Amino acid sequence: MKAYVLDSQGNHSLQERPKPTLIEDTDVIVRIEKTTICGTDLHILRGNVSTFKDDTILGHEGVGIVEECGSRIANFKPGDRVIVSCITSCGTCSMCHKSQFGQCLNGGWILGNEIDGCQAEYVRIPHGDNSLFPAPEDIDIESLVFLSDIFPTGYEVGVLDGKLKPADSVAVIGCGPVGLAALMTAKFFSPSEIYAIDNNPHRLETAKELGATHTLNNSENTAVQQILEMTDNVGVDVVIEAIGIPAGWDMSQKLVRPGGNIAVLGVHGKSAPINLEDMWKRNFTMTAGLVHTYTTPDLIKQIRAGHLQPEKLRTHHFDLSETAQAYDTFINAEKNNALKVIISNTEK
User: Fold this and answer.
1) pLDDT for the residue 264
2) Which of 57, 158, 221, 242 would staple 179 via disulfide (CB 3.0–4.6 Å)?
3) Which keywords belong to this entry (predicted)?
C-alpha cells in the first residue's frame, strides 16, 4: 500500500509499505478514505516530538471504512464508516476509568507517533471499540475528519480546560487550524470578547469571519500591549496558547488577568520558563496536555444543530499520491493561504 513515512534521516516521502494486519483481537483495520495533516505532524518533522519512532507512517486523523475486525470487537463490523480518534484508549486501565483517555496506559497518542498512522491506504487501530467513533451519514465526510483531533483538542484542551464561562474574555494565541477550532468552539459559551493573535493576515481575516471581535497582527510584537491597553491593563479571563513555542507561553503569562486561566494546547518542543517572580501573586491557573476526545459525540450534535461548521477550515484537496505536495502547501501556509488540507485515498 501507499503510505507517507518519515525516516531516520529526517526525510519524508510516499513509500510502498505492507498492508497492516490484525495483531491483537481488539484491533480494527480501516481503509482510509480521507485524512489530513496536523500542525503536530510539522512538529514531528522539526524533531520536536521525542516519542516519535523513526520510519513510522505519519498521521493521526481520518475517516474510513472498517476492513477487518479482531474477534473481540463488539461495536463495529466490516463496511462501517468510522472516525479515527487521534487518541487510542484501551477502556480498561486506571486512566481510562477516569476518562483520561489521552493518558491511557496502553495507548494515548500513538498513531503516527509510536505506531503507523493514517496517511496511508490502510491503518491498524488498536483497541478499536474505544478508539473509533461511528461516522454519521448526515454529515459531510471531510468535516468529520476534523473531529479526529483539532475540534476535540480546541474544545477540550482550550475551551473546557480553560474554564471559559459566558461573558468571559478570551485570547487565542495562534490562529492555525487548532487555534481557530478553539475560537469556533469558544463561541458555544458566548464570550464577551475574542482576541485573535497571529502574524498571518489570511488567518486573522478567517478568525474575524469566524467570530473574533478583535484581530491583532503580532508581526511587530505589539499584540500584548494592545490587548492590555484595551482591558485597562488587566488582561483577559482565558488565554488559549495554540502555537507551541516559548514566545506563545511568554505572551500568555503577560495577557492572563489575575485569577484567570491559561490553557496550553500548543505542542512544545523547547523549554519555556514560568516567570514566577511575576506570576506567583496572580492566582492564575495553567493547564496543558493531550486531548481525550470524550466530546466528539457532542461536537457531532453541534454540527447537526448548525452551531459548528468545520468545513470553514478546509482550503485544499490532494490525492494520497500527492501527499508531498500537500505537506509543502501546509508548511508554507502563509504563501498558500492554507488552513486544513484534505488528502483522499482513491484506491479501492
Assistant:
1) 98
2) 242
3) Metal-binding, Oxidoreductase, Zinc
Phi, psi angles (nearest 5°) of residue 56: -100, 145
CA distance readout (Å), 3 to 28, 51, 279:
18, 20, 46
Regarding beta strands 122-125 and 132-134, do their DSSP bridges make them parallel or antiparallel, or are they unpaired?
unpaired
pLDDT at 348 over 90: no
Grid cell locating 83: 472516525
Among 136, 237, 127, smallest CA distance to 191 is for: 237
Instruction: Give the domain extent around 201.
Output: 152-288
- Cβ neighbors of 98 (< 8 A, separation 6 or more) are none
Please check whether residues 108 and 195 belong to one and the same domain: no
Spatial separation of the C-alpha atoms in residues 100 and 293, rounded to whole Å = 9
Rg from Cα positions in the chain:
20
SS3 for 194? strand
The pLDDT tens digits of the residues spanning 282-341 come to 999 999 999 999 999 999 999 999 999 999 999 999 999 999 999 999 999 999 999 999
Q: Mean of the pLDDT values across residues 87-91?
A: 97
CATH number for the domain harbouring residue 258: 3.40.50.720
The answer to whether residues 234 and 183 belong to one domain is yes
Task: Kindly indicate the confidence band of residue 149, based on its pLDDT and cuts at 50, 70 and 90.
Answer: very high
| Angstrom distance (rounded) from CA 25 to CA 10 | 34
Looking at the DSSP bridge assignments, the partners of residue 314 are: 340
Q: Element (H or E) spanning 39, and its range?
A: helix 39-45
What residues contact residue 232 under an 8 Å CB cut-off, 6+ apart?
Answer: none
- In terms of domains, do 131 and 157 share one? no
Phi-psi label, residue 271: left if phi above 0, alpha if psi -120 to 50, beta otherwise: beta
DSSP 165-184: -TT-EEEEE--SHHHHHHHH
C-alpha cell belonging to residue 90:
484501551
Report the domain count for the chain.
2
Q: What is the mean pLDDT of residues 17-45?
A: 97
Please name every residue paired with 240 in a beta bridge, in sequence order, or none if there are none.
172, 263
> Of 235, 118, 90, 228, which Cα lies nearest the Cα of 169?
235
